[in-house]
Specification:
The longest helix has 36 residues, at 83-118. The chain has eleven helices and six strands. It has a two-stranded antiparallel sheet. A two-stranded antiparallel ribbon has the order 2-3. It is mainly alpha-helical and 273 residues long. Helix 4 (60-81) packs across helix 5 (83-118), helix 5 runs antiparallel to helix 8 and helix 10 packs antiparallel against helix 11. It folds into two domains: 6-104 and 182-269, Rhomboid-like (Rhomboid-like fold), CATH 1.20.1540; 109-179.
Length: 273
């Protein structure tokens, strides 16, 4: 059995403690509201969530598969990197995942904001309406948006009757895109996968449900391609439909760029314990 390395061991322990601790305290939604990552236009966004979301997980299955991948690939990568270099790489990939997620988010919401501004909504009003909580259970509700909008609009000298269907749909879409939360270490782990593949291109890997050995240099790009397809088509292959595929891609791209830079500058030859 592969001996676990120090950074991986402590990351595993920290993730498990946070998962068990939040479950034991019994108010998952409270901790999600503080530690999960929300988008910048959400009223729930806080700057520390950029880091804390990497240690939160949606459920036991989510935690298990992320930690299994961290142990399986992270141990091998840390053995070659050293502890501090591994942690810098891991956290950088997590931040890269956030960066691409936010970039895509802003690309998606920019046309919505533009359409609303052209219909007479000020940017401040759009922010106020976007921050409204219209989540009921696991569903965003248009009825909740309409009810809560009325109060905000009246305080701004407007009424709901002035909002046409196009503007209402844009506000609803903007609210949904802005108020979803992201949790998990998947972005950072995708970066670790890329590093493993670049360090060990001929290592043979297998999917749990497809026990056919595939070399890492084919297996890992294949996983990234599937994530890209899922991100652009909303078709999920191996994971739930609410998976943050853009974050996966962001972590993978960041990992590749760091590895490429290190290799080009021969920094990849040195451990940093």
């Amino acid at each position: 059995m592969m001996r676990i390395t120090p950074a991986v061991k402590h990351l595993l322990i920290l993730n498990v403690i946070i998962f068990v601790g939040t479950a034991f305290l019994g108010n998952k939604y409270f901790f999600d509201g503080i530690l999960a990552l929300y988008y910048p236009m959400s009223g729930a966004f806080e700057f520390w969530q950029i880091g804390t979301h990497m240690f939160m997980h949606g459920n036991l299955t989510h935690l298990f598969f992320n930690m299994f991948a961290l142990w399986m690939f992270g141990t091998a990568v840390e053995q070659q990197f050293g502890l501090r270099k591994f942690l810098i790489f891991y956290l950088s990939c997590g931040l890269g995942a956030v960066s691409l997620t936010f970039l895509v988010y802003f690309i998606q919401i920019y046309p919505l904001i533009g359409a609303l501004e052209s219909n007479g909504f000020s940017y401040d009003l759009i922010q106020d309406l976007t921050a409204l909580n219209i989540l009921e259970g696991n569903m965003f509700k248009g009825e909740l948006l309409a009810n809560k909008m009325q109060v905000v609009l009246e305080s701004n000298g407007m009424s709901l009757s002035q909002v046409d269907n196009t503007s209402f749909k844009a506000l609803f879409d903007l609210n949904v895109k802005s108020n979803g939360a992201m949790v998990g270490a998947s972005g950072a782990i995708m970066g670790i996968l890329v590093a493993f593949g670049m360090l060990n291109p001929n290592a043979e890997l297998m999917l749990i449900f497809l026990p056919i050995p595939i070399k890492a240099k084919y297996f890992i790009p294949g996983i990234i391609v599937l994530d890209l397809i899922s991100a652009t088509t909303a078709v999920s292959f191996f994971s739930p439909s609410n998976t943050a595929y853009i974050a996966h891609i962001g972590g993978a791209v960041t990992g590749f760029l760091i590895m490429y830079f290190w290799k080009k500058n021969q920094f990849n030859k040195y451990r940093w314990n």
